Amino acid sequence: MGLCGLRRKISLPGRGESSCDNLCQRSSEDGAGQVIKRISTSVLATTVLTVAGVSAASADTARGWERAAMSVPAAQTISKGEGVTVAVLDTGIRTDHPALKGRATEGPDYLKENDKSEAWYGEHGTAMASSVLDVAPESKVLGLRVIRDNDDPDYQGGSLNNPDALSQAIIYATDHGADVISMSLGSRTSWGGYSEKDLTAIDYALSKGVVVLGAVGNLGDKNDGGDNGISYPSAYPGVITVAASVPDGSRASFSSVHSYVDIAAPGVSIYEADHRSSGRKSGEGTSAACALAAGVSALIVSKYPDLAPRQVEQVLEKTASHASRGYSAETGYGVINAQAALQAAAKLTPEKTVLTGETGVGLHFGPGDDGTPKTFDQGVDSANVGIAVFGAFATLFSILGGLWLFKSGRRLQRQGANYGGPGGSVAYPQYSAHPVPPQQYPYQQAAQSTQNPYQQPNPPHE
């Protein structure tokens, strides 16, 4: 699960991993840009939502442009995230990286492994944690490992360590002081990645006042094989779903398009921590956008800690770049404006938090109507298309079979008319073993008898 901006891979948050169903990410290094087009098996694949390398379109983007695009420098004069903990549910983090050092801790590994010393460990998670801290520099990061990096040997092997990794990590983060949960990951399966346990855990976090964010996914580019599939956990009610934008504010080509998208954040040429060095590298994807949005959420929660998660979502939406023009399934209400969101939050009266399943819950996210229109073009979902195609063929075959049977019956009728048998000139021959000879008219005299029986014969002439 995941759509950030560094690479594409599929690991299962305990549900298994699949290197061949890499539908959520692109990688210029290993050719994963050619997304597998066949329908994946019905396994919940959890992938980091990152695209490897830098696209040609973003190659000239100024380093660090993302902070200015979201008005972060101005927002940091109001809040820097002090006192807030952001849980980064990802591939683990390297707490000794300069971008994280002194501001990050790591919790349990929910994949139940012991491989933190491996060179590949924490690539994606470290990058995401650095983006959070770039926006909210005085916040703390709690890293929880729920998915695998693609260089993890078990990622390639599809190890099924813990099917409940994501839900357990959400509950742990909630119970250990997290104020914001960032999930730059996503499911990918033909028959849906919905999990009752994950939804229950998200409900629990929301009920405790924790703001929950998720990346929408990197399946929006049909020219690159994307099928715009629905991805969890971003599709769950209560999750603030984040799309990726480019410098002009429009959707990044890989960013998935869905009616549950709330807002957008920069998602190309993001200057983030490189886990293999003490430096940074450029990455792109909806994962990066989600991490940046989580950082902005930390700024708001730090300044106004009593706001309900729904209210944090509201101020992000109502102050986004095209909120006044209306909603778009591509970028929600637009690119985040951190300064404007903080100013709008100052005018709100805190509301109580409720579970998403309670009475009064809105259409999509949290209690109350969030203003999202009920219907939008969501693009093509492979699971629904597959079911529809199967149903269409089944119906077509049924119709053709019925026509064939009907025509066969008519043909047999015509054959019976010509050669006897049912419907023919000699009907139901089984009821007559021998033909019935024609009967004479009972009152008819023999043909040779023409004399009137009552007429006396003429006397003979003499």
CATH class of the largest domain: Alpha Beta
Strand order of the largest sheet: 3-4-2-5-7-8-9
Tally of domains: 2
Helix and strand pattern: EHHEEHEHHEEHEEEEEHHHH
For the CA atoms, what is the radius of gyration? 36 Å
**How much helix, percentage-wise, in residues?**
25-40%
Q: What structural class do you assign from the helix and strand content?
A: alpha/beta
Examine the coordinates and then state which fold CATH places here, giving the name of the CATH topology of the largest domain.
Rossmann fold
Q: What value does the average pLDDT take?
A: 77
Shape annotation: globular
SS element count, helices: 10
Q: Report the sheet-strand fraction.
A: 5-15%
CATH superfamily membership of the largest domain, which one? Answer: Peptidase S8/S53 domain
Architecture per CATH nomenclature, i.e. the level-2 architecture of the largest domain: 3-Layer(aba) Sandwich
Spans of at least 5 consecutive residues whose pLDDT stays below 50 are 1-45, 52-60, 359-379, 419-434, 440-451
Number of strands: 11
Would you mind describing this structure in some detail?
27% of the residues lie in helices and 11% in strands. The chain is α/β, with parallel strands linked by helices and 462 residues long. It has two domains: 45-379, 3-Layer(aba) Sandwich (Rossmann fold), CATH 3.40.50; 385-425, no CATH class. The strands form three sheets. The chain has a seven-stranded parallel β-sheet, with helices on both faces. Strand 10 and strand 11 form a beta hairpin. Helix 3 packs across helix 7. The radius of gyration is 36 Å and the shape is globular. Residues 1-45, 52-60, 359-379, 419-434 and 440-451 have low confidence and may be disordered.
